[in-house]
């Protein structure tokens, strides 16, 4: 016959049983079920939306990368890490709208983007000069992509129309048709751009 638990310990015994049950359900069963469902329904996304080059992972379509050179579309600025786009240091700059430092950065970036792309400073869109909250956003606005199209086409010796078509193919619409704004994934755009030439 099992030993009876003394009355003063019964609340602790009940708490321990609930703790073990919730650990099994929420700590093991639920995560395994969600992971399994994700692997079946969305295997590429569940594995990190990896981009492969020559059989090796070269990045993720969910995390931005810095691209140097006239032949690439450039992402928005990043405050994540010393050199930007550091996944281990995801963060914003924490500079507010009244910050003189932020204002100086925006002015400097606007001049640089305008000069690099041969456009007026007034044509430079806001996402070309400001970082995202995470510092890892792989998207730019269609307006920023349009500013860069002529430069990229010229650097690669491609017809501008072909580059514009590629930008359009990598432009995502609004979520559910009304949430957010259209955006261009720079990582996948540059991957396919590399395949053109």
Protein model, in words:
The mean pLDDT is 87. Strand 1 and strand 2 (56-60) form a beta hairpin. The chain has helices at residues 10-41, 43-46, 100-117, 142-156, 160-169, 186-196; strands at 50-53, 56-60, 139-140, 171-172, 183-185. It has 197 residues and is mainly alpha-helical. It starts with 9 loop residues before the first helix and ends with a helix. It is elongated. InterPro entries: KdpC. The system is composed of three essential subunits: KdpA, KdpB and KdpC.
Give the termini distance in whole angstroms.
80 Å
Please mark out the parts with pLDDT under 50 across 5 or more consecutive residues, or reply none. Answer: none
Number of domains: 2
Compute the average pLDDT: 87
User: What's the overall geometry?
Assistant: elongated
Strand content: 5-15%
| Order of strands in the sheet with most strands | 3-5-4
**What is the CA-atom radius of gyration, in angstroms?**
24 Å
Question: Mind sketching the topology for me?
Answer:
Layout: H1 10-41, H2 43-46, E1 50-53, E2 56-60, H3 100-117, E3 139-140, H4 142-156, H5 160-169, E4 171-172, E5 183-185, H6 186-196
Antiparallel strand pairs: 1-2, 3-5, 4-5
